[in-house]
Amino acid sequence: MTIPFITCGGMFWWFDRYQYAGWRIQENIWTHRCRLLDSHDVRRFSGTFEACSDKLPEFLKIWEEPKPNGETVVFIHGLFQTPGSFDDMKTAFYDKGYEAVSFSYPQLRSDLEDAAKKLNAALKRRKDIKRLHFIVHGVGGLVLRKALMMKPEWQSVWGRVVMISVPNKGFSWAGKWSEKKWYKFLLGKMGSNITPEFVSKNVSEMSGDFAVLMSGKDNGKGYLPFMGEDNDGILKVSEAFVKNAKEDFLTLGVPHFFLQKKEKTIEMCLFFIGSGRLGKGKRIRRESNLMSKFYDR
Questions:
Q1: Domains in the chain, ordered, with CATH?
Q2: Is this prediction's pTM over 0.85?
Q3: What is the number of alpha carbons within 13 Å of residue 263 lying toward its C-beta?
């Protein structure tokens, strides 16, 4: 018998092997033991992957969970975050009829390639998905880009993507500090994979139907003036910009780790996944036209 236990949803030592209707089966990277989490990240069962898989239908029936309609949105968090950072947005998508699922990976114990393989393996088990969208934050965007390089089976049902504060050109500060002992200790294996040099050489450009959302102050200084240009306290605006993005938007006054929680961000994500535009029926004007200066680069 497994006693229900509240978890963080997997942050350092767990990765997702299967997701369905908000429920997830995770595996521990050390013991390889699996656990079944409900849509609120409460552990409902633990054992082997096969045992958790057999138990899942029983819980879905007892809880009367509705069967997904085939249109799924996968949320991938960034460094020093948990799947819970997307809870408000997941609820909004669920209320609109989407299947909203999180992908969790051991962020400091994995590199980009390992995390991307785990993402592809989890999605490969979902043969029922008819259209697959992604909303990614921070390093989660690099995980997705790396996964796409592997030509996964799910690419045939790939839909739209919203990239929120993603270091599409890498983090400039990572390039400066990557050889420091404290940096390697804090960021683990992933630390060496987020430098501008690594990203430019080992992660393919994003393509397809996608939008970029970023935060800053539009004053040339951002949250941390010593970074030399507008930034959200972690990432420079120019490092998030992608020239071939279908849409982009600069939001003011929201630090890096909170942009995905902002009501306006949730609204724009809903519109883009549903219509391919950031605004209803027409393109929303940027809160600031700062990002337009990067088009000519």
A1: 68-296 (3.40.50.1820)
A2: yes
A3: 0
HEC readout, 85-115: HHHHHHHHHHHCCCEEEEECCCCCCCCHHHH
Give the CA radius of gyration of the chain: 19
- Residue type for 45, please? F
Quote the CA–CA distance of 137 and 208 in Å, as a whole number: 17
- CA 54 to the chain's CA centroid: 28
CA-to-CA separations, 189 to 14, 121, 205, 226, in angstroms, rounded:
15, 20, 22, 27
Per-residue pLDDT 10s for the chain (297 aa) are 678 888 877 767 899 999 999 999 999 999 999 999 998 889 999 999 999 999 999 999 999 999 999 999 999 999 988 888 999 999 999 999 999 999 999 888 899 999 999 999 999 999 999 999 999 999 999 999 999 999 999 999 999 999 999 999 999 999 899 999 999 998 888 999 999 999 999 999 999 999 999 999 988 899 999 999 999 999 999 999 998 999 999 888 899 999 999 999 999 999 999 999 987 544 444 454 444 544 443
Q: In this structure, are residues 73 and 101 in contact, taking their beta carbons and an 8 Å threshold? A: yes
